[in-house]
Write a structure and sequence with these properties.
The chain has 272 residues and is α+β, with helices and mostly antiparallel strands. It has 8 helices and 6 strands. It has 2 domains: 50 residues, no CATH class; 156 residues, Muramoyl-pentapeptide Carboxypeptidase, domain 2 (2-Layer Sandwich), CATH 3.30.1380.10. The strands form 2 sheets. It has a 4-stranded antiparallel sheet. Helix 1 packs across helix 2.
Length: 272
């Protein structure tokens, strides 16, 4: 085997890793131009032996750089990837993440990039995939006479910080007590744009309370939400130790969403 073969393999792997680390913006059909399916014909070489020597030198140099600096760069890219976060420590909290990355029962989540958000109602945004699915689900519920209301969607880390710390202070709650009903910043499913809080337009007094489970909207969701790839995030007795939230649902109808919630899903399926 040629001595250049391993170097070329290392270089290719490094390149693929960099490509995967960059999150893909949702591309709509009209964004894609008519592509040329074939490469242009190669130009005749004029460099002779010197050109071949120079090409070999460049390949060897790139391969050596990949070996020396590749692992460090890959580790840094993995840490900065917007689709995964692990072990975030938060100023103002004495608690530290568990071995599986959870803090006070909640898994870490990065913020969705703004280009992937869509406005569903004034002041409420969702990830495009979740938004399209929710709109179809809401129309189906309306056809069955159910007034399904969207109460909350995407939240930035900054907003979640206020919801967690400011409300905890106003209610004289400890971090552990607050985490039973609200995630620390950086640990909320809402930051992904895939989570939403739902209510019943005919029973607004049940909004964001366990009484929501007594409404027609909740019963309809139990029977039909899975068809639109929505599941209840925190059912009664959930292994994350979060309080029962019948109004909080998340979307798992895309590869990105499945990857984000894989840890939570595995924990839920783990035998108690």
């Amino acid at each position: 085997m040629s001595p250049l073969a391993p170097a070329l393999t290392i270089n290719t792997t490094f390149t693929n890793a960099v490509v995967r680390a960059v999150p893909a913006r949702r591309i709509q059909r009209e964004d894609i131009p008519v592509a040329r399916r074939s490469s242009p014909p190669p130009r005749p070489s004029r460099g002779g032996g010197f050109g071949l020597f120079l090409a070999c030198l460049l390949v060897c140099g790139g391969s050596v750089a990949a070996v020396l600096f590749g692992p460090e760069l890959l580790a840094r890219l993995n840490q900065e990837s917007p689709t995964t976060i692990s072990g975030l420590e938060i100023s103002g909290l004495e608690q530290r993440p568990d071995a599986d990355g959870r803090l006070l029962g909640h898994f870490p989540y990065a913020e969705v990039i703004s280009a992937q958000l869509m406005v569903i109602e004034p002041g409420i945004e969702l990830h495009q995939d979740a938004g399209i699915a929710f709109d179809s689900m809401r129309q189906a519920a309306a056809a069955d006479g159910v007034d399904l209301r969207l109460l909350s969607g995407y939240r930035s880390h900054q907003l979640q910080e206020s919801i967690f710390f400011d409300v905890a202070s106003a209610r004289n709650q400890t971090a552990q007590e607050r985490a039973l009903v609200s995630a620390p910043p950086g640990y909320s499913e809402h930051s992904t744009g895939f989570a939403l809080d739902l209510g019943d337009g005919d029973s607004p007094e049940t909004n964001l309370s366990e009484d929501f489970e007594q409404t027609r909207a909740f019963r309809w969701l139990q029977d039909h939400a899975a068809r639109y790839h929505f599941i209840l995030s925190f059912p009664e007795g959930n292994p994350q130790g979060v309080s029962y939230e019948p109004w909080h649902w998340r979307f798992e109808g895309s590869a990105d969403a499945l990857r984000l919630f894989e840890s939570a899903r595995r924990l839920a399926l783990r035998p108690s």
